[in-house]
Amino acid sequence: MNENEHFDKKSLKLLISKNPDWKALARDCVCFANAKGGKIIIGIEDDCDMPPSGQKISKKLPEQILKRIEELTINVGIGVKIKTAGNNTEFIEINVLPSASTIASTSDGQYYIRIADNCKPVLPDELSRLFTDKSAFQWETKVVSKYYWNTCDQNKLKQFLTDIQNSQRVSDFVKQKSEEELLTYYQFIDSNGNLTNLGVLWLGTQQQRARLLYAPVVQFIKYNERGEKVRKEV
């Protein structure tokens, strides 16, 4: 497959050499995130369709990629898998999600975008247009990994249901809803019963939360007994 706006290939040498070029990979992830997302294949040379004979991938490399990209980028979400090619060799597939409502950048403040098969820097006067192009996006209600609601942390679910029943701020109409109806009402699940990002954040297990692709910003507001706002933190 030829490289294009949504697809790029890189040699495995990029990451297993004496001095891995993590910044180059981070830059490519930012490029795809600021465009429409894309796929980066690591382990297939530019002029080849298959990995070299006998190529195997360390099982630790995907986790290392996730960690380094998280450290070197801002507003970039990726998924990393080891895959097997038709010649029974292995390669790495990185799926880069589009940054739907924010601008992705490297951690040192550089902006890039994928145009055709090239990664181009975004100039300062182009940033405003890039912001304008981003459509409205609700992170909370999106379903990324399909976790059915009853696979969540049962202790957290029980505590949530107890808090709802004991709260004076919740109406009797809401309290009478079933478990699944309550989760739908608070947008913790979608119409298929799968946990939304908000549901994973609030009720998910540690493993489920670890797979959230964007780090959320959480704000809490504290009120006193008179209903006056006395504290707010982000």
Description:
The protein has 234 residues and is an alpha+beta fold. Helix 2 crosses helix 3. The chain has 9 helices and 10 strands. Strand 7 and strand 8 form a beta hairpin. It is 32% helix and 19% strand. It is globular and about 65 Å long. The protein has 2 domains: 127 residues, Schlafen, AAA domain (Methyltransferase, Cobalt-precorrin-4 Transmethylase, Domain 2, 2-Layer Sandwich), CATH 3.30.950; 85 residues, no CATH class. It starts with 6 loop residues before the first strand and ends with a strand.
Give the total of domains.
Answer: 2
- Alpha carbon gyration radius: 22 Å
Q: Into which percentage range does the β-strand content fall?
A: 15-25%
The total of beta strands comes to 10
Oligomer kind: single chain
Q: What is the residue-mean pLDDT, rounded to a whole number?
A: 88
User: What's the helix-strand series?
Assistant: EHHEHEEEEEEHHHHHHEE
| End-to-end C-alpha gap | 45 Å
Helix content: 25-40%
Unreliable stretches, pLDDT < 50, 5 or more residues?
A: none
CATH superfamily of the largest domain: Schlafen, AAA domain
The main pleated sheet reads as:
4 strands, mixed
CATH topology assignment of the largest domain: Methyltransferase, Cobalt-precorrin-4 Transmethylase, Domain 2
Shape: globular
